[in-house]
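Our consortium's second objective concerns turning raw sequence data into structural hypotheses that experimental partners can test. To show how far this objective has progressed, the report includes one record in full. It was chosen at random from the queue rather than selected for favorable results. The single chain below, 277 residues long, was entered without modification.
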Amino acid sequence: MHTFKQHSVLPGFNLALGFTLLYLSLIVLIPLSAAFIRTASLTWAEFWDVVTTPRVLASYRLTFGASFAAALVNAVFGLLVAWVLVRYRFPGKKLVDALVDLPFALPTAVAGIALTALYAGNGWIGQFFEPLGIKIAFTPLGVFVALTFIGLPFVVRTVQPVLEDIEAELEEAAATLGANRLQTFSRIIFPTLFPALITGFALAFARAIGEYGSVIFIAGNMPMISEITPLLIITKLEQYDYTGATALAVVMLIISFVMLLIINLLQWWSRRRRASA
């Protein structure tokens, strides 16, 4: 007879499992279920009309498109930052390592105001792009910048410990056997890092989808152009349209769940393939 109980230093499996299920129910399951229950008061035709208006569809495209693009950029440059922090020694390394966590600690409103000040047409950075006809603040590009800013630490902190566990001797052994740098990275290092990189990408993507505070300052919030879905949800709540707000929330939940499921399946496939290699 099989049992799920396993030996542990801390006793009380049944009590611990009960508290775990209770906590998850109160924090995750019940709030999410409430959104679905509230939305169930709409007929299918009413629900479809709410979630497929041109303004809402434009917000979906911006929210998910910018989130995906920002997570993809962070996957590339987050790997580079983690590599530099692990493989190299240089003055100010601890300061750079601490700066990576700044988006974690910085209030989102402060981040939004700071980014807007930097990338506005008269800002320190925006003033160099304005003469070139590139407007960053108050455009979809500004949304992308904000989501990239808040998502970077998720990739770096996910990849960094895995990279630290990869011994430099493996690279030396590969070089001894005649592998060049590209072959060493693509065949030895990257397959090991890939599951962690996918995890970091998924975390950055999920964080970006729900981001609100830092985006609304730099986005401009123009309907059909730079308006994100979380802002639409807040707008409906302010108008006391709770059913419409929960309808949009349900759509975002479903799309987010499907995309994260695909990412997790890809991660599982990568680990299984590496284990069987």
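The partners drew two points from this record. The chain has a mean pLDDT of 87. The chain has one domain: 65-276. Both points have been shared with the crystallography group to help prioritize constructs.
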